[in-house]
């Protein structure tokens, strides 16, 4: 990946047109093996297709978190959907653009995606970037910048978004608890969702009674959106998001 691309939040990794040349990553939980001490995990459910393409979710943790902490949010839904979960660790306590600017985490995520694309047959019509809390803010931002890769953005309790540019038209799912004490809904999702809709994105927004969390029903609804496949992506959104 070019340094300039990483600084702009752009990802180069793309799934091959068909099955990957090298088979790998059997069902189970695997370390990425790309860095120490902060690395990441890949979860391949037993239900993942063995001889065809399946969905992939890039899942991003919150501030101070890691892959092991965020994966349980979607384990059950990954099992139900046959979706591979890729959860990298941020290079520092949280994601790069929240600390300073895009760069190190974008480059690492690109390497992680390349590794999964090389070993699992991924359906290009069902690739999501998802996240919780700071990870949701990062997922929204990366998803809008890389809408030519991600077909869906699943943001659970996001705080803000900071895309450097807009590319493609991913379908967007946003959820937020009405009693969230960490990222209050009035200052966060209730402001973000209208901006996304004004920019031309199809947004499914779910508020629920509760705090800073991802209820099981919310996780299921988000996964159902991904399973529905590629949304309308023929036109580029307005640059006002």
End-to-end C-alpha gap: 26 Å
Structural class designation: alpha/beta
Rg calculated over all Cα atoms: 16 Å
**CATH superfamily (homologous) name:** Alpha/Beta hydrolase fold, catalytic domain
Q: What does the largest sheet look like? A: 8 strands, mixed
Number of helices: 8
The CATH topology turns out to be: Rossmann fold
Multimerization state: single chain
Biggest sheet: strand arrangement: 1-2-4-3-5-6-7-8
Query: Average pLDDT across residues?
Result: 93
The stretches of 5 or more residues where confidence is low (pLDDT under 50) are: none
Number of domains: 1
CATH class: Alpha Beta
What sequence of helices (H) and strands (E) makes up the elements?
Answer: HEEEHHEHHEHEEHEH
Topology, element by element:
Elements: H1 3-7, E1 28-31, E2 40-44, E3 54-60, H2 67-70, H3 75-81, E4 84-88, H4 96-99, H5 104-117, E5 122-132, H6 134-145, E6 152-156, E7 171-177, H7 189-198, E8 203-208, H8 216-227
Parallel strand pairs: 3-4, 3-5, 5-6, 6-7, 7-8
Antiparallel strand pairs: 1-2, 2-4
């Amino acid at each position: 990946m070019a340094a300039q691309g990483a600084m702009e939040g752009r990802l180069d990794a793309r799934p091959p047109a068909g099955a990957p040349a090298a088979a790998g990553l059997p069902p189970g939980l695997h370390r990425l093996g790309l860095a120490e001490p902060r690395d990441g995990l890949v979860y391949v459910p037993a239900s993942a297709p063995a001889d065809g393409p399946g969905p992939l979710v890039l899942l991003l943790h919150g501030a101070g978190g890691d892959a092991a902490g965020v994966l349980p949010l979607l384990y059950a839904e990954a099992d139900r959907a046959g979706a591979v979960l890729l959860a990298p660790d941020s290079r520092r306590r949280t994601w790069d653009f929240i600390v300073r600017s895009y760069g190190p985490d974008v480059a690492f995520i690109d390497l992680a995606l390349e590794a999964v694309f090389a070993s699992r047959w991924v359906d290009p019509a069902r690739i999501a970037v998802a996240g919780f809390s700071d990870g949701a803010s990062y997922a929204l931002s990366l998803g809008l910048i890389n809408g030519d890769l991600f077909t869906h953005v699943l943001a659970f309790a996001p705080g803000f978004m900071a895309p450097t540019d807009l590319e493609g038209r991913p379908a967007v799912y946003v959820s937020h608890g009405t009693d969230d004490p960490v990222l209050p809904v009035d200052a966060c999702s209730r402001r973000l969702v209208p901006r996304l809709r004004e920019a031309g994105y199809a947004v499914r927004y779910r508020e629920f009674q509760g705090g800073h969390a991802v209820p099981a029903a919310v996780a299921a609804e988000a996964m159902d959106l991904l399973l529905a496949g590629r949304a309308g992506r023929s036109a580029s959104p307005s640059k006002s998001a």
